[in-house]
Amino acid sequence: MTEPFIGSRSRRQTSKKNMYYIYILRCSDDSLYVGYSTNLKQRIEYHINRRVISTTYRLPVELIHYEAFISKKDAKAREVFLKSGYGRKQISSFLKNTLSNNRRGGCSSVG
User: What is the pLDDT of residues 33-52, one digit of tens each?
Assistant: First the structure.
């Protein structure tokens, strides 16, 4: 008798699968930085340790949002969208409470 089919991948296959992340940082000048990474924790450390030129002079930064994807194409498309004019408006809308907490808020710039 065969084992019951549960999902499309075994636990072992799923755990080896890469995840792709888009993330939003709030910078010290209240600008927002949108980025992409396959290793979110390491990428945030790079920002903090001045290894990312785009945020070097806008430290400290704060991670305020991230999304995880199993498809690299989906993650990259989301990053491009969030960097667009309509994407910036959407960020301001879905992070309205976060952006208004302890800061002036808004979405002045997306890196």
Answer: 999 999 999 999 999 999 99
11 to 15, 30, 86, 102: CA distances (angstroms): 6, 41, 38, 42
Cis peptide bond prior to 4, omega within 30° of 0: no
Do residues 28 and 58 make contact, with C-beta atoms less than 8 angstroms apart?
yes
pTM listed for this prediction: 0.78
Q: Does 8 fall in a domain? A: no
12 inside domain? no
Residues 50 and 11: beta-carbon distance below 8 Å: no
Q: Please tell me the total count of domains within the chain.
A: 1
CATH number at residue 46: 3.40.1440.10
How far apart CA 84 and CA 95 sit, in angstroms, is 16
- Residue 11 falls within a domain, yes or no? no
Kindly tell me the sign of the dihedral angle through the C-alpha atoms of 96, 71, 41, 36. negative
